[in-house]
Amino acid sequence: MEEKSKNKISEEEKQFHGSSSRPKGGLITMPFIFANEICEKLAVVGFHANMISYLTTQLHLPLTKAANTLTNFAGTSSLTPLLGAFVADSFAGRFWTITFASIIYQIGMTLLTISAIIPTLRPPPCKGEEVCVVADTAQLSILYIALLLGALGSGGIRPCVVAFGADQFDESDPKQTTKTWNYFNGYYFCMGAANLVAVTVLVYIQDNVGWGLGLGLPTVAMFLSVIAFVGGFRLYRHLIPSGSPFTRLIQVAVSAFRKRKLRMVSDPTLLYTNDEIDAPISLGGNLTHTKHMSFLDKAAIVTDEDNLKSGQIPNLWKLNTVHRVEELKSVIRMGPIGASGILLITAYAQQGTFSLQQAKTTNRHLTKSFQIPAGSMSVFTTVAMLSTIIFYDRFLVKIARKFTGLERGITFLHRMGVGFVISIIATLVAGFVEIKRKHVAIEHGLLDKPHTMVPISFLWLIPQYSLHGVAEAFMSIGHLEFFYDQAPESMRSTAMALFWMAISIGNYVSTLLVTLVHKFSAKSDGSNWLPDNNLNRGKLEYFYWLITLLQVVNLVYYLWCAKIYTYKPVQVHHSKEVNSSFRDEFELSNRSLVDA
What we know:
Elements: H1 2-17, H2 30-48, H3 51-58, H4 63-79, H5 81-92, H6 94-117, H7 137-167, H8 179-208, H9 211-231, H10 245-258, H11 275-278, E1 286-287, H12 322-339, H13 342-349, H14 354-361, H15 379-404, H16 412-443, H17 462-486, H18 492-520, H19 540-564, E2 571-572, H20 576-595
Antiparallel strand pairs: 1-2
Helix pairs in contact: 2-8, 2-9, 3-4, 4-7, 4-18, 5-6, 5-7, 5-18, 6-7, 6-9, 7-18, 8-9, 8-15, 8-17, 10-12, 12-17, 12-18, 13-18, 13-19, 15-17, 16-17, 16-19, 17-18
């Protein structure tokens, strides 16, 4: 049966890839994937890095409404990947999902670019500092439609592009099994490099040349990203979609519920296995049985009612294989760890809203005639992130490897933990910097002059931006590694969607916090922690410290989750050499975590 399964997979792959004998995937595909990533991120980041300025200066939205619009968009953009992952894993495959989603995104970008060029699609310029007409319903409708198309496009790109790149390395090849964690570092580095260009060159053009050109260039970059990606079609490994992963998870849950009254078998080897029906979803090997969540194992207990005959495929709503049961266990185990990243995103989201507003009030002049655009302040986040990735990849891993014995230096759980601690420090620092900024504003009589520059250097804001960049290099890459590594192989787009779902919820939590704080901190004299028009009269530092406190609680929660976490069971690979390597890595990871 196992030989038959192998032959079946081989025939399917041959039909899917074509008759060419040249091996697919590998390092040769990276220029196409990274070129796509650079162009796509240049487009997306250049489009949204300075969007708070566009909403407040061009559409004249109040600060809190503009901030919530952006965090809602970011949240929706990170929630739609669940839909994109379903499409990719079920029937379309990652390549076509990425391609069509990119086209949808470009339509949205083109629409908003047109609205920035045609004056009638925006409200008239303000007359003085106070007389501003807010964008009307029709003008806001164009904005929301463009953002919605962008969110739908993100839904297809985000869960698939990271997994598609990692798919190019064959886990059954001993020479490629350790390359995926290098790929994640390379992916994030390219993304960061594109961010760097976007928040400097493009933001400068938007602020000093015009929004038509400033939004038009990212739109062109998005078009180039599609060309670059499609150009590598013949070189890619295209993994065959194996059907809806959500259906399989539900089938296991239903069959376990139906057999809930059965007594658990004493020997796990008596549980149902079928390599033939599991072959399309376990090309790298089957997941082995784990003792945790044993109530789900009942889905794999064979009873007389199942009426199994030799070679017969069972009713999967009544009986499931051990591999499919372990898929559901793996997804459940990932949930608490994945959820721990939510508040880090909540803290990080403030860089594009209130931290940017802080930057707008500071002295950003490098020379008498040139000043750094406020939207470019995130360049310090990006530089810190890129520097940390280089240091981590070139130095820290080599040092840590001597102590842990792990090829990746430290486990992704340790990496995430370091990121959490640094993020706490970043938001704590941001609160103290805001106190300093307001103190200078009071000293110079600028408390009631929100549009006047406070004579304090933008350099004071660099620590909070940079610390967030260091935290992202540890936490976000570790988070990606965790989801990709611990997810069942047939659910990796879905796993990437879970990563983005955590980001989505983090942005929605930011919206909720801003709304609640703005509402409940309001007093009868008009004062507010987060005022709409005058940050100098607010208590932004309290808001930062509230997020800091929440992150401390979250860190305790994460440490508890990491302590009880059980790694995905060792896979039984077709190659003994690969299985031995995977088992050694698995055992070292567990031992390292326990020792910590």
